[in-house]
Amino acid sequence: MRMRKVIKLLRQPEFHLLVIWLFLALTNWPFLAVAARNGLLALYEYLYVLWAMLILLLFCITRCVKDSFGDPTNRE
Known about the structure:
Blueprint: H1 2-11, H2 13-26, H3 29-36, H4 40-69
Helix pairs in contact: 1-4, 3-4
């Protein structure tokens, strides 16, 4: 039951826009300045974790959308 709610959320275009704006905001000056206070290595770690989270989230979104609309590469 919970998984259906998560899949339904991942399929919504509004959620896709929220993800884009959230990750854009997290790579803006105030957040980068906070990470940079702890040194350059901390800044790289922050950006790497953000990048990994974005890739994982986009992978999950892609899988949910592909399951709902079918595989476009399948031309039977």
